[in-house]
Please model this.
Amino acid sequence: MAKELDFENLFSMVENMITGVGVFEYEREKEKITPLYLNEGCFRMLGYSRMEGMKYAKNLLATILVEDRETFWQGINDILKDDGVVEFEFRTVTAQGALRWLQVRGNLYSREGNRYIIVGVVIDATERKNVEAELQEQAERLNIISQSGGELIFDYNAKTDVMTIKANNKKGFYQDIIIEKYMTEFRCSNIFPDDIEAYYEVMHGALKSAKRDSIDVRANYLQEDGFIWYRVDLTSMPGIEGYVTRIIGRMTDINDKKLKEMELQIKAEKDGLTGLYNKTATRQLIEQILSSEEHEEKIHAFMIIDLDNFKQVNDRFGHAKGDEVLQYAAEQIANTFKRRDVLGRIGGDEFVVFITDINMIANADILATRLGKLLDKEIVGDGESVRVTSSIGIAVFPYQGKDYETLFKKADKALYSAKANGKNNYRIFDGAATINYRNSSRKASYSVMQQNDYKRDLMDMIFQILFEEKSRTGAVRSVLELVSAQYGMQRSYLDIDILEGAAEDEFIQYAAEGYETGAETTAQREDRRKVLREYFEKKGIFGVLHHYDDVSDDACAYMQQRGIKTMIIQTISIEGSYFGSIVLEKHDGALEITEEKLEELRCVFRILLMYTLEGDKVDSVCNNIARIEMLDNFDSYAYAVDADTYHIYFLNKKVVQTTPQVNIGDLCYKAIQGKDSPCEDCVLRKLERGKPHAHVTEECFNYSLRVWTRNMASWLECRQENPICLMNCIDISEYFIG
Model:
């Protein structure tokens, strides 16, 4: 302690003689470094009071930039060698949040066992570092300029967001072009519109980290009569803070060379009718991408697009009209995908798109849905019309293949499945098997998924699909596919016949490979619905129907004709009337399923019903379902009710297990309270409309559950029409009776 006190007196005297210099004494014991003394110079340098400064000193490592910590520890370890004065520099953060370069000169004062005393001085080296950085930047710029001749030289200052472009010829510089707010407003009127996106990506990438890059773009900085091709070579340089502060480079005229290359490329690679890549070039480009090491851990989608009914266009209207349809399709494909994606025509009406770095498989779903809508077109001529749509098959790299042949074959099988399931839709090959992969993480790579051997609960996967899928039809089909794969079913569908034969009817189906049935005729649809209505009238809402059950002749004939051994049926009713159904079909043998699995299926069907009825509110519905499902972990009864119509929208497991007679679509006052009209003291009437966070709590006897409950009502969907109320009921019978 005496030695430390002497130092404090000594440092106090030094501080009176010098200014602008920090003096310190630190203790190093094992891996811990503790301040013993810092003078006022240290605190002034970093903008702290003495009290705040000591906190800074005690947490010194936390304020040093991560990339400089290795340098800091190396300097400390060099001091401990006791070979004399050691000098090193590092960056730290001041009280105002600014970066400072600190230069430390220190040496070892004493050592007692594992305890070392380090003393030294620290100087603010920020200004010197700024000057050094500026000199380095100037040297880089001069080096580039000295090597240029007849070129455009540019200098972008990231701090001021100003781009300066200088035109250079053999006689010297002329015509400075200065553009302010260059990146914030991205003022690139001198760049050809089709090249702006790619040019921006290169500039933006150069701002993220110091690098050298190049790109070919068309520009008209000196030409008044049009754009010419330039090769842009650029270098981005970091400042002392560690981030990029400057981008400098040159633009070289390569117009003649580029035009010749493009002419040869068009002849060799492009399809003459559509302007997309031809079959050979498409394959070569995709194989080139697949062989690149940088793509090994990314997710890509291989998409085959086939135009439905295209042959009818040629037959009825002639090949000229058919060519117009192909050109229109190529235009929509080009508008849907990015420049870096590979777009090709590989046959008469068949196209291939290789989508690079899709991040998550759901993005392939979104793009396929969007493209399908764009390619849905009515072709009219000579008093008749043909509706041209598209069927799309998708395979995913690397999950379903790592080479062109494998991806093509699997995408082609998915395409066949899309056509067999009614055309005008898309399929992902073995889509149910990719659900875990799709939902493991929005940004997970293939290798990470393999290492983790990822597994998901069925309900979690369903919620994730419904949340991520932007296409309602695609979401329902993906869930049907997942459930079919999970339970070994060959075909599944959701059928809602709101009005007999009306346009509002909805039929969404999935069929495993080899079990596709094609589009239903009107007679086939009526046969199926007749069987399901009969099931509803005789057996109720949910159950299993085997081919050997005591069924009507019509039902028996229906199942035999289609090779159905077992059907799991969830019929949909509104106020006691048949409304539709969800059906899983097993064709390849007897069904062995536990009561627990059947209960899980009931939950799945309820989720699909709520999602279907609320299809225009994808995000909110999925989130609300998840909220209700969370209540299954508690000993409470939870259900959702339409506050205007009193129809039940959702039931949690505890309600279903306790009251199997209660179903989605029932009137709550009839199913739960056994009344013929809404309860006079109904909690829904007390819940204040228009206030999303309103809630009401009351206690009553529940006639359906046969228990006293504390009912907590809150808005699940607080909207003008048909708001949805969440009821959470806790059994308080023991407490109440007591």
Q: What stands out?
A: The mean pLDDT is 79. Residues 615-737 form a domain with the Beta-Lactamase fold (CATH 3.30.450.20). Residues 417 and 513 are 7 Å apart (CA to CA). The two ends are 70 Å apart (CA to CA).
